[in-house]
Amino acid sequence: MNCKAVQSRLSSYVDGEVFGDESLAIRDHISGCCECAEEHRSVRQLKSLMRSLNAPEPPSDLGERILANCRAAEVRRSPRLWRIPTWGYVGVATASMVLTLVVLRTLTARGQVTMGQGDAKRNLSFEVQQDRLNWGSDPTNGAPIISTSYTGR
Amino acid sequence: MIFTALREQARPKEDRTALFESLTRNGFKQAYGLAYRLTGTHADAEDLVQETFLRAYRFFHRYDETLPFSSWLFRIMTNAHIDLVRRKGRLKCTSLEAGGTDGSTTWELPDHSASPDREMMLNALDAPVQQALNEMTPEFRMAVLLADVEGMAYEEVAELMNTSVGTVRSRIHRGRKQIRRFLMKHSPESYRSYCDEL
Known about the structure:
The complex is a heterodimer of chains A (about 150) and B (about 200).
Chain A: H1 3-14, H2 20-32, H3 34-52, H4 62-77, H5 86-117, H6 124-135
Helix pairs in contact in A: 1-2, 1-3, 2-3
Chain B: H1 2-10, H2 13-39, H3 42-58, H4 69-88, H5 118-134, H6 138-148, H7 154-160, H8 165-186, H9 188-197
């Protein structure tokens, strides 16, 4: 291992992040190379300095202010919907169901009326007859009811 | 992750709130220490800590109690710090070598090398080290601080910073070199005195 390779790994070596043969090779190199030994010492000194730096003291009430801030943010984030009481949800759900049923019934009733009166050319019994002619069998017996060759219009 | 979230959801909300409050009261000092080294001023450190805990509170249902709270919190702080730096438009850093080379920048840093006391030397080097950290990119600064000040393993730092161990290795190596070069340039006597004491 040459000096360049050793020096690029010295930080990891000092941090105990180089293992096995590589670690042994670096150790051997350092013991015989003044330049790399000096570099190794420098890395250790800087690491020692960084670890020794005094931890800055926070304001004494910071913890409580953080918690107060979190609580205030939660209140701000809660939308009005979440404050509706449980019976409110039940009422809204029931009203939606009733409305849906009414709309469905109305649409179904309208559909029956138009089926009998409207466009006689699209009469259902006519379509079944036509299918029987096209397929030569009962269309409810597996064959598609509306055939591709249908030209009923 | 899913099971953790489900387990957390299953806990009564009061319990989770009490747990968060307890973890906050126990952990805010350490968080502040890292925030100060990351930002370089008390006002910015407080902003960063507030933002970090606010995000932690919002996503506390995702926190796995079996893992250290500090690691989870520091991950949030990493992202919050990068976001804050970008918002303030300070991501563009000046090179450490820029100071003094063309006469445009002068670093006014105290050099108290006369004091033999180690504590005094550390105090004297505190500002230059912080200045050197401030001049680094947030990614380099975070990697160096997590490894050196918080004593985390490279793998832990990599996971926390959402990057590879190789990238962490490189950032720490280059980051330390930058700090040392800066100290040798702007506080050489203090730094040499400190090194001689070791």
